[in-house]
Amino acid sequence: MSDRIYLYPIWIRFWHLANALFFLILIATGLSMQYAAFIRFDIAVSLHNIFGILLTVNYLFYFIGNKVSPNGKYYKTTWKGLFSRLAKQFRYYTIGIFKHEKPPFPVTKERKFNPLQQFTYIVAMYAMVPLIIITGWALLFPEVLFNKLLGITGFRINDAIHIIMGFLLSVFMLIHIYFCTIGATFTSNFKSMVNGFHETH
Ligand code: HEM
Q: What are the structural domains, with CATH classification, of the chain?
């Protein structure tokens, strides 16, 4: 018997769709620039700049949305007991799930994310995405920040952070999509992001 809980408001679904699309374009153009590959270099640069700006605007929408709507509460956690919660969920993903055990942190209206999911979403959305956005803008206007303030070392460090975050967020996205397949059915979590309803087992 499966139950449905409304967890993904329309604004989060729109944000997420745009975010995923912009990310895919940024990864393709970013990789193409780095390896002078499949997209003509000047076109890749222009597209990367445009979609970087769009991603920033979309991120601000998400950030403010989570501040002013109830969705923000799902990202709130405490340091106390964090490690044991993460370990419990990790044990479930590596052992319990194969023994058909019940999930240690089932999805409810109050708890949309399990601890591992919540932790990775917080790190991705409140550390890595802001870092890639800030370093991206710095690369867009290098004359302001580097020539006058930080010099060539600053430029190199900024560039390295941007590329490392790009790599880590690409890895995050692959793992994220994989974990989205472990829902009530293979496709149920993807359907949630279309109709807003989470399906439980
Ligand atoms: C094609 C790429 C992507 C697909 C197919 C995808 C799929 C999904 C699905 C099915 C969910 C709902 C289940 C859940 O909450 O775990 C979800 C939620 C989420 N995804 Fe993705 N995702 C993609 C890219 C991304 C990217 C690039 C990011 C961030 C950089 C991201 C961040 C999030 C966040 C933060 C949530 C929870 C949103 C909320 O309810 O507050 N996703 N994603």
A: 3-200 (1.20.950.20)
Task: State pLDDT tens for residues 5-27.
Answer: 999 999 999 999 999 999 999 99
Query: Which residue's alpha carbon is at the smallest distance from atom 2 of ligand 1?
Result: 20
User: Rounded to the nearest whole angstrom, what is the distance from the C-alpha of residue 36 to the centroid of ligand 1?
Assistant: 29
For the CA of 128, the nearest atom of ligand 1: 30
Helix H or strand E encompassing 160: helix 151-180
6 phi, psi to nearest 5 deg: -80, 110
DSSP H helical segments within 4-101, as ranges? 10-34, 41-68, 82-94
Tell me if 199 sits within 8 A of 183, measured CB to CB: yes
- 58, 123, 180: residue to mutate for ligand 1 pocket, most atoms within 8 A of CB: 180
Measured distance CA(176)–CA(117) in Å, rounded: 9
The model's pTM: 0.93
Nearest protein CA to atom 35 of ligand 1, as residue:
121
Of the pLDDT bands very low, low, confident and very high (cuts 50, 70, 90), residue 114 is very high
Q: Does 114 contact ligand 1 (Cβ within 6 A)?
A: no
Residue 52 · residue 64 · CB < 8 Å: no
Supply the residue whose CA is at minimum distance from atom 15 of ligand 1: 113
Q: Sign of dihedral through CA atoms 151, 155, 161, 164?
A: negative
